[in-house]
Structures are given as C-alpha cells and as structure tokens.
Amino acid sequence: MARSEDGIVQLSTEEMKSFLINKADEPIIIDVREVEEYENGHLPGVPLIPMNEIPSMVAGMDQSKSYVFVCRSGRRSQNTALYLREQGFSNVRNYEGGMLAWDGELEYGQEWVVKDVEELYK
C-alpha cells in the first residue's frame, strides 16, 4: 500500500517505472524542476512545467485527470501536488524521493518543455 504524506499519495520508483512502461494516458506525469535540471536528465517522455509556472497554467488543466509530480528530491513536487489539491484537483500524487531516487533510464535535453497546457492532453 502506498504511503501518504499530508493527504498526498507518495509513489515509489517501481510504481513510476510501471507508469512509464505502460505509457497510459493517465496519470499525467509532470516534472516541476527548472529547465536546466530537466535538461541534465529527466524521465523519458515526461513533460516539464517548472513549479513557478504551474499557477499560470492551472486554469487550463483538466481536474478530472490524474497527475503525478516529479522533482529532484520529492519536496517541490509534493508542494505542487498540495497546491493543486487546494485548487480543487482530487487525484494528485507525488514521486517520493524524486530524481535522486530514480535508477532507471534518463533522457537529456529539452525533450518536452510545456508552453501551452493543452499539450498535455494531445
């Protein structure tokens, strides 16, 4: 059973690998680190929306979808999940341990830096 912190489910590395392998439409996994951190190694196929840009994009995000947030250590992504829950999103989760805990494949460069939140749903 997954652990919860402040009401946010904390996902393990194995759970994250399962989501990436299955390539399902949901949950939508979002990296919330800064561009430079993302360029230096991120989860393959996972888009970047830096944490400080989330408030400007939240109105365009679909509250009926499920989301998982990723950062370097799990703290910024936890705070992002808490913020979205406050905005009315009910299915938000955090990758506990973040990229520091990741031992799988990495992608490098600006693979998918989100400019328009609609990109998440295509």
Automatic annotation (TrEMBL):
Q: Which SUPFAM superfamilies match?
A: Rhodanese/Cell cycle control phosphatase
Question: What are the residue boundaries of the Rhodanese domain, all occurrences included?
Answer: 23-108
Name this polypeptide is given: Rhodanese domain-containing protein
Origin species: Shouchella clausii (strain KSM-K16) (Alkalihalobacillus clausii)
